[in-house]
């Protein structure tokens, strides 16, 4: 999760987020190189005493400042397009979960298990236990197995919402009457936090998303307990 005075992204918890972090570093280095080069040109032009008023154009310079930016754009576009295709690729998910946005809470339905669904409300500040995070804890977490492709179908019942988990590199709009989907794989066990990222009303900031990634045997035990509780 995020921490105070954090400057960069959260640590990656999925292969997709790792790719996004690598692309961010790649693009940032290109930005630094271009900025340094432009600064050098500006300083050189200001400090130089050499002038030639007879030069009206230069074909070589025209070619250079046309071809060089095109190469830079290709170096940025190709990895960007690769990541976009990876984000949309959904191959044989092991588990499908439907997430519905409401004013102001999330509800989850495990479509591969009959009658397994629940609402997830934010834990009020006065009910927090030591070690829990204000505005981020939920009374029911979305539990998933690690190292398994997970597909999440996302929609909303009333107004626009957005299902976002930064450490997974996932942010999908929840639109009434429309079903969006995303997929991810969690690399390691842990608890991942997110929040609704679309202004959806007065309690927009009070509908957190909490994902608990556990090993597969623990997930199977959890599903058995939940199905016994709700049947």
Automatic annotation (TrEMBL):
Domain of life: Eukaryota
Segments traversing the membrane: 27-51, 63-85
Keywords noted in UniProt: Copper, Electron transport, Magnesium, Membrane, Metal-binding, Mitochondrion, Mitochondrion inner membrane, Respiratory chain, Translocase, Transmembrane, Transmembrane helix, Transport
Membrane topology type: Multi-pass membrane protein
Pfam families: COX2 (PF00116), COX2_TM (PF02790)
Domain (Cytochrome oxidase subunit II copper A binding) ranges: 92-225
Key word Glycoprotein present: no
GO terms, biological process: ATP synthesis coupled electron transport
Cofactor info, note text: Binds a copper A center.
Enzymatic reactions: 4 Fe(II)-[cytochrome c] + O2 + 8 H(+)(in) = 4 Fe(III)-[cytochrome c] + 2 H2O + 4 H(+)(out)
Xref: InterPro entries: CcO_II, CcO_II-like_C, CcO_II_C, Copper_CuA, Cupredoxin, Cyt_c_oxidase_su2, Cyt_c_oxidase_su2_TM_dom, Cyt_c_oxidase_su2_TM_sf
PROSITE patterns xrefs: COX2, COX2_CUA, COX2_TM
Statement: the UniProt record of this protein carries the keyword Metal-binding: yes
CDD domains, A to Z: CcO_II_C
One of the record's GO cellular component terms: mitochondrial inner membrane
A GO molecular function held by the record: cytochrome-c oxidase activity
Reported cofactor(s): Cu cation
Compartments where found: Mitochondrion inner membrane
Predominant subcellular localization, coarse grouping: mitochondrion
All residue ranges annotated as the Cytochrome oxidase subunit II transmembrane region profile domain in the record: 1-91
Its biological purpose: Component of the cytochrome c oxidase, the last enzyme in the mitochondrial electron transport chain which drives oxidative phosphorylation. The respiratory chain contains 3 multisubunit complexes succinate dehydrogenase (complex II, CII), ubiquinol-cytochrome c oxidoreductase (cytochrome b-c1 complex, complex III, CIII) and cytochrome c oxidase (complex IV, CIV), that cooperate to transfer electrons derived from NADH and succinate to molecular oxygen, creating an electrochemical gradient over the inner membrane that drives transmembrane transport and the ATP synthase.
Family, similarity comment: Belongs to the cytochrome c oxidase subunit 2 family.
Name under which the protein is recorded: Cytochrome c oxidase subunit 2
């Amino acid at each position: 999760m995020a921490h105070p005075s954090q400057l960069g992204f959260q640590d990656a918890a999925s292969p997709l987020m790792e790719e996004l972090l690598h692309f961010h570093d790649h693009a940032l280095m290109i930005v630094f190189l271009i900025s340094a080069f432009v600064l050098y040109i500006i300083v050189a032009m200001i400090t130089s005493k050499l002038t030639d008023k007879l030069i009206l154009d230069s074909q070589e310079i025209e070619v250079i400042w046309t071809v060089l930016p095109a190469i830079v754009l290709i170096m940025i576009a190709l990895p960007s397009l690769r990541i976009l295709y990876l984000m949309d690729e959904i191959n044989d998910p092991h588990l499908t979960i439907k997430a519905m946005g409401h004013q102001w809470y999330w509800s989850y339905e495990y479509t591969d298990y009959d009658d397994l669904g629940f609402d997830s409300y934010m834990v009020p500040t006065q009910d927090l236990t030591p070690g829990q995070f204000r505005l981020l804890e939920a009374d029911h977490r979305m539990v998933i197995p690690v190292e398994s492709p997970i597909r999440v179908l996302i929609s909303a019942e009333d107004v626009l919402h957005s299902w976002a988990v930064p450490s997974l590199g996932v942010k999908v709009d929840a639109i009434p009457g429309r079903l969006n989907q995303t997929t991810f794989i969690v690399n390691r066990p842990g608890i991942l936090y997110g929040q609704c990222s679309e202004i959806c009303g007065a309690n927009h900031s009070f509908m957190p998303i909490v994902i608990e990634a556990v090993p597969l045997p623990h997930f199977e035990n959890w599903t058995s307990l939940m199905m016994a509780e709700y049947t």
